[in-house]
Specification:
alpha+beta; 127 residues; Trna Endonuclease, Chain: A, domain 1
């Protein structure tokens, strides 16, 4: 059984926060606007969305998953977005949209932060 020390947990969180910061800056440079960060559904077993952005060109609400991996093993950052992870993101997005009077069009993007930033628009859908 592998245990996580506090130092490695802090380092992992710090890397994750830095990846989210880099992804946010990349998306803002592309014209998207931040709506929410680290949106979580209440309770256990829910989902979390790293970034919720608005694309002002067509008013699309963009749910963004940020993935960072320091090595390309096991499919790299893209390979870490499993079907189960997608379901949790979709669950959280539906929870978020249920709060809105008139939900706008939306899509699910992924930003991979590896040696460079790769933005995958409409990387998966809610089906």
């Amino acid at each position: 059984m592998k245990t996580t020390t506090t130092a490695s947990a802090v380092t992992t969180k710090g890397r994750g926060d830095a990846a989210e910061d880099a992804a946010l800056a990349h998306l803002e440079r592309a014209g998207l606007r931040l709506v929410a960060r680290n949106y979580r559904t209440p309770g256990r077993g829910g989902g979390e969305i790293d970034l919720i952005m608005r694309d002002p060109r067509d008013r699309t609400l963009v749910f963004v998953e940020v993935r960072q991996r320091s090595s390309g093993g096991h499919g790299g950052a893209a390979g870490s977005i499993t079907a189960a992870k997608q379901r949790r993101i979709v669950f959280a997005a539906r929870h978020y949209l249920a709060r809105l009077r008139e939900p706008p069009p939306c899509r699910f993007d992924v930003v991979l932060v590896e040696e460079r930033i790769t933005w995958l628009r409409a990387a998966f859908d809610a089906d």
